[in-house]
Specification:
Length: 153
């Protein structure tokens, strides 16, 4: 079995239809990935800083990494299991907020039926808890001592 790892990173500027594959990207806590359409310098809403998807699922539905419009494609880790948990991507600490369900925009950009094929397996939305860099090849792993984030008031 392959060790859980980042296999692709895709970012795109606001309004850019196609995403660009990069080898690494700077991540800022609570804000997102620099240079990406979902970067929020004033602070991202919970679950809006980072999206991840499993390479195995992307391959299963016949898409290329990046075609799902998720920022980080990983191999060898069940992302649904990271919802409600802290985890590391390399040295970057993240928190899995919720499933990232497919939308009609994805279907318009790919093919009919993709939404149904990806329900409950289109990846996760996460918060970025520490500043750092995500690079292709970084490992992905849950933190052993996993403490949930406190509820916002």
């Amino acid at each position: 079995m392959t060790a859980p790892a980042v296999v692709a990173i895709h970012v795109g500027a606001e309004g850019q239809r196609e995403l660009t594959a990069v080898g690494s990207v700077r991540a800022l806590a609570g804000k997102g990935l620099e240079g990406d359409r979902n970067f929020h310098p004033e602070g991202a809403e919970s679950g809006r800083a980072l999206t991840l998807v499993e390479e195995e699922v992307v391959r299963d539905v016949g898409l290329a990494p990046g075609a799902t419009r998720r920022q980080v494609t990983v191999r060898g880790v069940r992302l649904n299991d990271l919802v409600g948990r802290r985890f590391l991507v390399g040295d970057l600490e993240c928190y899995g907020v919720r499933l990232c369900e497919p939308c009609l925009h994805l279907q318009e950009m790919t093919r009919p039926g993709i939404v149904e094929e990806l329900v409950h397996r289109a990846g996760i939305n996460a918060d970025i808890l520490t500043d750092g860099t995500i690079s292709v090849g970084d490992d992905v792993r849950p933190l052993k001592e996993n403490v949930a984030l406190p509820e916002a008031n």
